[in-house]
Specification:
It is built from ten helices and 14 strands. By secondary structure, it is α/β, with parallel strands linked by helices. Helix 3 crosses helix 4. The two termini are 42 Å apart. Bound molecules: adenosine-5'-triphosphate (ATP). The site of adenosine-5'-triphosphate has 13 residues, from helix 1.
Length: 295
């Protein structure tokens, strides 16, 4: 099974072009769609989830035409949107049961079994009678996955699921996602690089509505080997370095600043080579865009 996106474009009524000729092939397993705020991730996710139309292009889930056969897509889709609202005065068990009815699971005995098993799977069984208004952010997100799993979806979309979760909740959420299975397509849209590093076998980086890079994380990281260099400097030296080098990131460390620079060879003897990681890949793509915009 594969989701194939071809020449997809979308401009909103206010003139913002959120998607520019997007081409992507997404195989089964967990796929990371990584990009900064405003990159177009949610626009793409909402289009795949049949919640908004594109101006041009096509999306196919194998033989299923996603942009035309919306009912067909909805039957096989599980969606956890960026803003997942819950009814605060309803328990998890009640709301999941209600959503199961809406999904077309009419047989009450079967529904009870499904609801129970999803509450177990998402580790919410002990909190099933509790009103959702009293759930923590992590519990709400796990509930979001429980509802997305209703009806055995073949395609699951989770939009920015770990933003705002503390490390323990994020870890729990990761474990849950990684257990869902290899045989369906799960698209994880995020601006958090380590979500993709930890979970995804394939990925794409999107910025300003365009796909900048696709591949598997290990390979794209390996392609950057020998090109990333670092230097520990005082904060007031950073601007000078930026003027002279292709700085892809700078972050504070013990009161100093670690600067990562992209260069085919060691810029000078004061730089040391970095073992690149996915953050370097990401920042290299994003920084290129920034310099392209500034130029
Ligand atoms: N309904 C809309 N009408 C007009 N512009 C929109 C609309 N939705 C999104 N945009 C704009 O389209 C661009 C892409 O937004 P989108 O929400 O798809 O990005 P994103 O990568 O999901 O970012 P974020 O994580 O901030 O939601 C942004 O410039 C945004 O302001």
């Amino acid at each position: 099974m594969a989701l194939t996106i071809t020449n997809l474009s979308k401009t909103y009524a206010n003139g913002v072009q959120a998607l520019k000729d997007v081409n992507l092939t997404i195989p089964t397993g967990m796929f990371g769609l990584l990009g900064p705020n405003g990159a177009g991730k949610s626009s793409l996710m909402r289009t795949i989830a049949t919640l908004q139309d594109a101006d041009s292009g096509s999306i196919m889930l194998d033989e299923l035409d996603v942009l035309k056969d919306k009912d067909g897509v909805r039957r096989v889709l599980g969606y956890l949107p960026q803003e997942f609202g819950v009814y605060p005065r309803v328990s998890a068990e009640e709301l999941l049961d209600h959503l199961a009815v809406l999904k077309g699971i009419g047989n009450s005995k079967q529904r009870k079994e499904i609801v129970e098993s999803l509450l177990q799977q998402t580790n919410l069984w002990n909190a099933r009678k509790k009103n959702l208004g009293g759930y923590s952010g992590g519990m709400k997100q796990r509930f979001g996955i429980a509802q997305a799993l209703l009806g055995n979806p073949k395609l699951i979309i989770v939009d920015e699921p770990t933003a705002g979760l503390d490390p323990a909740e994020r870890n729990r959420f990761h474990n849950l996602l990684s257990e869902i299975g290899e045989h369906i397509i799960i698209i994880l849209s995020t601006h958090i690089v380590s979500d993709v590093t930890d979970l995804c076998r394939n990925m794409a980086i999107i910025s300003q509505g365009q796909v900048r890079l696709t591949g598997d994380p290990l390979t794209v990281v390996e392609q950057l080997r020998g090109q990333v260099w670092r230097k520990l400097v005082d904060k007031d030296e950073v601007a000078g370095l930026q003027a002279e080098h292709h700085v892809i990131s700078s972050r504070l460390f013990a009161g100093k600043t670690i600067v990562h620079v992209l260069s085919d060879s060691r810029p000078d003897g004061t730089f040391e080579e970095v073992n690149p990681d996915l953050e370097d890949v990401y920042f290299a793509q994003i920084a290129e865009r920034k310099s392209a915009v500034l130029a």
